[in-house]
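Progress report, Aim 2. The chain analyzed during this reporting quarter is listed below.
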Amino acid sequence: MKINLLLLILYNLLLSSCSPENEQEYIFFLHNRFLEEHNLNEPHPEYGVAEYREIINAFEKENFKVISEKRSGNVNVKDYAIKVNNQIDSILSKGISPNHITVIGTSKGGYIAQYVSTYAKNPDLNFVFVASYRDGDVENIPEINYCGNILIIYEKTDKLGVSALKRKETSNCKIKHFKEIELNTGLKHGFLFKSLKEWIEPSIKWAKRNYDGA
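Predicted structure tokens for the chain:
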């Protein structure tokens, strides 16, 4: 009887260790255009220094494995999205659940993330698009098709980011979870240069599948 009980305990521990809730969680962070052509310590003339390292650290403190790089030069959005998709496929091939992978992009990085969503066509991946939708995008970039769990974050005083509901309505992939957050920091487009809790915290909650609490 004791041996059977021990075996049952070991079996339950094994199941627990294999549970998706104990999988490594990943964040792909894609920064904005400014850092492509400037070094990390060079300040933007209006928005100051981009807090790239601080943003990465905020995600890592929550035990995410962060995959990110400082892009150099004016990279092609579509080509870079294919590169990220290949990285995601590599992770998925290890048995990681798609909803343990989140792609977060700010400004141009957000457009790259939208193409990742379009190419991956995986409704279980998580995405956070920050300040990366403008009026006219549906007409000007018709090929983008949202797919996945989508969180939109934009700033009220930023002319380069607005509600993306129109894009959601024109996307033909089933979107299980969709939410928009309008901030009002007064920082215009500069809000995404900073490691602000206003956009970092809901991004983390989304990546942890807390879709209602984000």
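Residues 26-207 form a domain with the Rossmann fold fold (CATH 3.40.50.1820). The chain has one domain: 26-207. These observations will guide the mutagenesis work planned for the next reporting period.
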